[in-house]
Structure formats: C-alpha cells, structure tokens
Structure prediction request, 343 residues.
Amino acid sequence: MAERKKLLRSLAGEVQAVPPVWLMRQAGRYLPEYRATRAQAGDFLTLCYTPELAAEVTFQPIRRYGFDAAILFADILLLPHALGADLWFSAGEGPRLSTVTTEADLARLRGRDDIHETLAPVYETVRILAQGLPRETALIGFAGAPWTVATYMVAGRGTPDQGPAHALKAADPALFDRLIALLTEATIDYLSAQVAAGAEVVKLFDSWAGSLSGEDFDRYALEPVRAITAALKARHPGLPVIAFPREAGGRYVGFARATGADCVALDNSVAAEWAAEHVQRDGCVQGNLDPALLVEGGPRLIEETRRIVRAFSGGPHIFNLGHGITPDADPDNVHRMLEAIRG
Ligand code: CP3
Prediction:
C-alpha cells in the first residue's frame, strides 16, 4: 500500500515518532560496493546510462541500511546533456560541459520534446527500481532546479560563486531568461517521464539557490520551482514534491507556500530549532544533519542526530543530511546514526 510508506506519510503531513530517513548521495563513493560497480562501469556517465548498473548502485544502500527511500541514481547534468550540451566528468576535476553564453549556443540546443532519446535509460532505471525495491521503500526521482543547472551550463563547470551565470543574467537578461524557460519546460517533461516510469516523489535540487538574493531569488529560485511543481501536480495529481533551495537562509521561510512544494529540504547552515518554528509551520521539512558528522562519528554524531529528531518532533519531518554524504564518511557511522534515530 503506497499510502503506508513512512516517507509518503511524512510528506502527507503526518507527525511520526520515528521519522523516515534517507541520505543525499546515499549511493556513493563512501560505499565499497559503489566503488566496485563504478569500476565495472568504467566511468560515471556510463554508470548513469546503464540501467542495470544504475539500479544496482541505487539498491546498495537500501540493502545495507534499510533506508525509507531510494533515490534514482543519475545526475542533475544529464538534462543539459540530453538538451545537446557536451558533458564529461574528468577525474578529480568534477563535471565539465560545453558552455551556453550566446544566442547561437542557445539555438544549438534541442527542444523539450527531444530529450527523451538520451534519457530513455534513466526511465528504464526507474522501472527496474519500481519493480525491485522493498514494498516499504519509497522511490524518489529528481532533477536539478533551473538556476543551478544553468550555472553549470553557462560556466561549463562548477564554480565557487556562480560568477559566470550572474554575469550573463546581468549582461543579457533576455537570453538568460530563455535558458531558464527552456530548462523549466524540459524539467517538467523529464520529471513527468520519471513519474510515469514509477517515481513516487520528485525532488528539485537547487544547490546554488543561496547565491541569489532579493528579486533574483524570486525570479530564478522560487518561480521556476513553482512552475515545475504546478505543472507536475496538474499532470500527476497528489504527486509529492520536495524542494531544496540550498543555503536559502531566511528565504526558506514561506518557500513551501510560495512554490506549492510539499516539503522543503534544509541545509545544515540553519538551526533545526529555528527551522521548526519558522519553516516547519508550513508543513514537512527534510534535514539537516551536518555531513561532516558522518566522518567524525563519536558522541557528537549521536547528540546532534538526537537533537535534530527532537527539534522537528512536533511536525512532519524526514531525517536527512544538510548536503550529500562525503566520500570520506565511515559507513559504520551511518549505522550509528540510524540507531540514534530508530532506537
Ligand atoms: O543522491 C543520490 O544518491 C542520487 C544521485 C545523485 C548524484 N548527483 C550522483 C553523483 C544526485 C541526486 C546528484 C545531484 C547533483 N549532481 C547535484 C545537486 C546536489 C548537490 O550535491 O549539490 C549537483 C550539483 C550535481 C553535479 C555533480 N555531479 C557534481 C558537482 C559532481 C562532482 C562532485 C563529486 O561529488 O564528485 C557530480 C558527480 C556525482 N554525481 C557523483 C555521484 C555519486 C560522484 C561521481 C563519482 O562516482 O565519481
């Protein structure tokens, strides 16, 4: 019974004594079994586009820890790839893409209707997962939010301050807005196809939302997420949406109401006690343990885990980290964290 899954109950607003838990990047390099499958695939993109292997790494943390949700193994940069950008991951350097900074670059991209050929293996991964997950485990699909994806497309790589995207938005707002509009439309179709394949929840990762302020935050972090959420809910009534405007700070307040998202994911720069009072009043929140504690372990891991569970115990909550688990995390610390949550 889909309604009985713990994750979906929190997303529907239910307060649970023991919150559901999963971790961002739960399939990742901290797990030896991930490193083995990654080596078998050869490179990261092949892993993403080989459904059997992508499904295998998605299952691995579920087998090891029994998390309440599995998140599709893919990457937010597959969408620009499907739109026609070149994409490669060079070891130690992170992602690299061909850049979009001119009208001609934008004109060379494909339209929203042409993304599915490249992304078909991702939908197949979702189908394998929907078939093979334990019945109590919810399946989360995801995409990057338009602003964050645009920051990579404009710069051609990750940047510390998203400078190139800020510069383009200032120099040629019409061009920048057309890129955001294309990403918004393509993201709706991409996530809709994930849902059609069996994703039960979708999450929008806006990792660089924190570099937007004032009207820019409304225009580029809030509005695209509102539009995507509305379109998805129109196509898939009842679909829960998790929004992650990372490092939004004070702008977390009211974000769920303004976008229609069912849950706001919190990074660990905000205090759980503050977020319980100002953000959780609007509904479910997710977060927000510091990922560094899964490296450090010890008494602080247990104390902080308990503190977060306690702080959010008055409302609907999904336990998670404030950002992805890091490659140097100790897999045994994840067991210790789970023990502190589930008792
Ligand atoms: O959470 C999950 O387990 C699902 C899979 C997932 C990945 N990336 C796999 C991945 C998800 C949800 C993402 C999202 C993603 N990808 C974001 C948003 C979340 C965030 O972390 O802020 C961003 C910005 C990206 C872009 C990206 N992909 C970067 C910057 C990098 C390099 C950094 C790094 O950790 O190496 C990636 C690569 C990547 N995506 C890896 C994984 C497991 C590591 C690749 C490897 O195995 O070598």
